[in-house]
Amino acid sequence: xxEHLRAxxxxxxxxxxxxxxxxxxxxxxxxxxxxxxxxxQFMNAVMRxxxxxxxxxxxxxxxxxxxxxxxxxxxxxxxxxxxxxxPFQLAFIIMQLPAPTxxxxxxxxxxxxxxxxxxxxxxxx
Length: 125
Hints:
The chain has helices at residues 3-32, 34-62, 68-76, 87-96, 98-101. It is an all-alpha fold and 125 residues long. It has one domain (3-101). Helix 1 (3-32) crosses helix 2 (34-62), helix 1 packs across helix 4 and helix 2 crosses helix 3. The mean pLDDT is 86.
């Protein structure tokens, strides 16, 4: 690696290791804490419902003759693809979950606390 890029590469590696640790901690938290698992499952159910509702609206917008039930059926016919996650979205959620579900989480208060926002513009909402 060229010398002028080494400091940047070192910073990126430190950040990647920090993210890896947070992801591993989040996975452990979801796997070992019943309340965190329930929150994760609830969030997934709500997001699935929202994804289906968005598809219903788009389908009916394109074809107003479709009933809500018909549009919902078309959306659900896509199977798992109707409400799937991108890996980066799932990783972000898992990394964030300890803060709202564990009162002792360092990410919840103190010098490590901060708000993180995941924003990604999409065509479908």
